[in-house]
Write a structure and sequence with these properties.
Number of strands: 9
Strand content: 25-35%
Oligomer: single chain
Radius of gyration: 19 Å
Organism: Natronospira bacteriovora
Strand order of the largest sheet: 1-8-9-2-7-5-4
Subcellular location: Cytoplasm
Distance between the termini: 48 Å
InterPro entries: SmpB, SsrA-bd_prot, SsrA-bd_prot_CS
Helix content: 25-40%
Protein name: SsrA-binding protein
Shape: globular
Keywords: Cytoplasm, RNA-binding
CATH class: Mainly Beta
Number of helices: 4
CATH architecture: Beta Barrel
Length: 162
């Protein structure tokens, strides 16, 4: 009997929310995975696909990491005795060595912490954090130019192969 193979990688269905603007606005240097301290109604709304990272960012305070500005719209079936706050500050769960590394990068080198994606991993909600530097206007233009050239190159190659 052959055992069924489990898919350990992230599948597209496991993705909850993406921060698409992050790669345009920032140069991502490093990535980390963090757990989140959530309430029951937040997990329910995440399963319903009602989470957003559009204006979210991460901060380090008193040796702890926090997620600010993430919007979790309450699901309609949320209990009446709970008063949900969609934009509350959520604690991020990281190892001490990861926290000390992030503190050193943000305080000394001027990096910022940006949430890139939220996904499920073995039944738990995880947040991918990017250690990033802000892009200048000319960097954004250069990236756009490069992307346009890649698109044109693909069109030319496709038309020549036909």
């Amino acid at each position: 009997m052959a055992a069924k193979k489990k898919n350990k990688d992230k599948t597209p269905s496991s993705t909850i929310a993406l921060n698409r603007k992050a790669r345009h606005e920032y140069t991502i240097e490093d990535r980390l995975e963090a757990g989140m301290v959530l309430e029951g109604w937040e997990v329910k709304s995440m399963r319903a696909g009602r989470a957003s990272l559009q204006e979210a960012y991460c901060v380090l305070r008193n040796g702890e990491a926090w997620l600010l500005g993430a919007n979790f719209t309450p699901a309609p079936g949320t209990s009446t005795h709970v008063n949900p706050d969609p934009r509350r500050t959520r604690k991020l769960l990281l190892h001490q060595h990861e926290l000390s590394k992030l503190i050193g990068l943000t305080e000394q080198r001027g990096y910022t912490l940006i949430p890139l994606a939220m996904y499920w991993k073995r039944g738990r909600a995880k947040l991918e954090i990017g250690v990033a530097k802000g892009k200048k206007k000319q960097d954004k233009r250069a990236d756009e130019k490069k992307k346009d050239w890649q698109r044109q190159k693909a069109r030319i190659l496709k038309s020549q192969n036909m």
